[in-house]
Design brief:
The chain is mainly alpha-helical. The chain is built from 1 helix and no strands.
């Protein structure tokens, strides 16, 4: 039994829609793969960023520790000088 022109047109339209659905499914799978790759890259970037933040904090703390050492040496020197002056007044 032959199909009428309307049925043929519907069949052709359904064939085109099926092809488009397959293309969209392929595109969706590809987007999912890209999303997974991007997620991995973002995770690696976050780890690298955390590592850099820790390294930067360590580098920034070096001058602060040096100034603390200088302040401690200055305080020890001042206390030693004061103790020397006090002891010299007592004749020791």
């Amino acid at each position: 039994m032959e199909k009428c022109a309307e049925h043929i047109a519907h069949d052709q339209h359904l064939s085109r829609l099926d092809a488009r659905v397959l293309e969209l499914e392929d595109a969706n799978k590809e987007l999912s793969r890209f999303t997974e790759r991007i997620t991995v890259l973002v995770d690696k970037y976050d780890e690298t960023l955390d590592d850099h933040a820790a390294r930067l904090a360590a580098l920034e703390s070096v001058p602060a520790r040096r100034w603390e050492q200088v302040a401690n040496y200055a305080l020890a020197t001042a206390l030693g000088a004061a103790a020397g002056i006090v002891l010299s007044h007592f004749g020791l």
